[in-house]
Amino acid sequence: MSVTLPAVPPRVRIQTADFDLGQEVASLRADDGGVGAVVSFLGTVRDRHGAQAGEVSAMELEHYPGMTEKAIEAMIDAAHARFDIRAARVIHRVGPLKPCDQIVLVAVSSAHRGEAFQACEFLMDYLKTQAPFWKKETTAEGARWVDARVADDQALARWGIASANAGLAAEGGR
Amino acid sequence: MKIQLLFFASLRETLGGPRTLELPAGATVAQVRALLAAEGEAPAEALAPARPVRAAVNQVLASGEAVLADGDELAFFPPVTGG
């Protein structure tokens, strides 16, 4: 006779498939009576850089298998160490995507809203600058890799964490 | 010593797929970057000191001064842009 253990959903998922926000939040709460707040962030693919609607026709997401999962697991550990949260989950899609597609989900549960709001933003700021993903956009001019933004490094700096992802960093440097 | 080299995104398009590299003991990430940059015009441009390039050793972000060991996995990639 085989014993079926209750499936513990992984905290981090990198997948090509789409996901369902409601389902993920329900599974994150999973009958935890200590949860009083859930905050989720949903990132979606835009069809433009500036004002020109429809400029971006497709997007390809590349990642570093293995490092991506490790990096995000470490981020979730850091969020648990910093904030009083119950659980966190990160789903990031890779492969070919289209404008309006869901691309990333960060969901955090906690006893009270303040910690969940903060932890969710912390995880997203961290992910934007430290998780090995790369976006390639297709426009009428062809496909091009998206540039990193200094503003994302500045967002992480609010948490007292230095990042030089967008600029000339010591990382891999001379 | 031998290390495993990986590239991602635009650097993968310029430098190609995974490969192994024979290195003298004590080689650093920055030394490998310079070695790769000397392979040709396109690698020199992609890995020029003025270009932001990030590196990871055994899947952890590393600085140029990081010293490599036999069997290490070294990856070079552009600044990350997920989310």
Automatic annotation (TrEMBL), chain A:
Coiled coil: none
Family annotation (Gene3D superfamilies): Molybdopterin biosynthesis MoaE subunit
Top class in the EC scheme: transferase
Enzyme Commission (EC) number: 2.8.1.12
Catalytic reactions on record: 2 [molybdopterin-synthase sulfur-carrier protein]-C-terminal-Gly-aminoethanethioate + cyclic pyranopterin phosphate + H2O = molybdopterin + 2 [molybdopterin-synthase sulfur-carrier protein]-C-terminal Gly-Gly + 2 H(+)
Family matches, as Pfam families: MoaE (PF02391)
UniProt xrefs under SUPFAM superfamilies: Molybdopterin synthase subunit MoaE (SSF54690)
Pathway of action: Cofactor biosynthesis; molybdopterin biosynthesis
Keywords linked to the UniProt accession: Molybdenum cofactor biosynthesis
Family: Belongs to the MoaE family.
PANTHER family associated with the record: MOLYBDOPTERIN SYNTHASE RELATED
Subunit text: Heterotetramer of 2 MoaD subunits and 2 MoaE subunits. Also stable as homodimer. The enzyme changes between these two forms during catalysis.
Protein name: Molybdopterin synthase catalytic subunit
TrEMBL record, chain B:
Phylogenetic lineage: Bacteria, Pseudomonadati, Pseudomonadota, Betaproteobacteria, Burkholderiales
Gene3D superfamilies assigned to the protein according to its UniProt record, in alphabetical order: 3.10.20.30
This protein's record includes keyword Electron transport: no
Pfam family, one: ThiS
Family, similarity comment: Belongs to the MoaD family.
InterPro entries per the UniProt record, alphabetical: Beta-grasp_dom_sf, MOCS2A, Mopterin_synth/thiamin_S_b, ThiS/MoaD-like
Organism: Ideonella oryzae
SUPFAM superfamilies per record: MoaD/ThiS
Keywords: Nucleotide-binding
Identification of the protein by name: Molybdopterin synthase sulfur carrier subunit
Keyword Magnesium: no
